[in-house]
Amino acid sequence: RVKTLIIGSGPAGYTAAIYAARADLKPLMYTGMEPGGQLTTTTEVDNFPGYPEGIDGPTMMIQLQQQAERFGTEVRIGMITSVELSKEKGGIHKVVADGEKQIEAETIIVSTGASAKYLNIPSEQRLRGGGVSACAVCDGFFYKGQDVAIVGAGDTAAEEASYLANICNKVTMLVRKGEMRASKAMQHRVNSLKNIEVRYNTEVDEVLG
User: Fold this and answer.
1) Cα-based distances in Å from 75 to 69, 156, 165
2) Which residues does residue 156 pair with via DSSP β-bridges, in sequence order?
3) Mean pLDDT lowest among 96-105, 134-143, 147-156
4) Are strands 101-110 and 93-97 parallel, antiparallel or unpaired?
5) Among 147, 205, 194, 203, which residue's Cα sits nearest to residue 174?
């Protein structure tokens, strides 16, 4: 049985671990399938406080892990596959790790974050961090004044395109079908920006670079 179980190992998870450990709540962290979270796929992080010269994502996550472990956090590489929350106030929660190991926890902190949705083509994976990104707000600065393309047709794609339109020369949205899935409000926003071009019935086969 553990006092505090933390599910997820991104910045939120390690922040929770640092505070929990300093409060003597003896946190146990399960990293999930992507130890360190999405920041491990980011080449340069310039918008996180405390790094005036910037830092690469993987190094930053290693430092966060080291800080959490310094205060007593136990970090396990693995995935929580089942959670049974107690219905009683102050009850004990039951979880299963990696499909077999059973753990009882007094408190569970869920910090699973999000996973980027990629196209799963070889060239895309090769160029991650070198021209291919899944976060406009994170990496858009590096493409300031350039021509960029976004693959997608939903609200997220429309929002990212709108953000990039403010800092990039031209944004081309590549939409697989003949219409966008985004809400009407987001479509109106995209269509109102002169430097966004939407190309319908367009699929990406490879990324060259």
Assistant:
1) 8, 32, 41
2) none
3) 134-143
4) antiparallel
5) 203
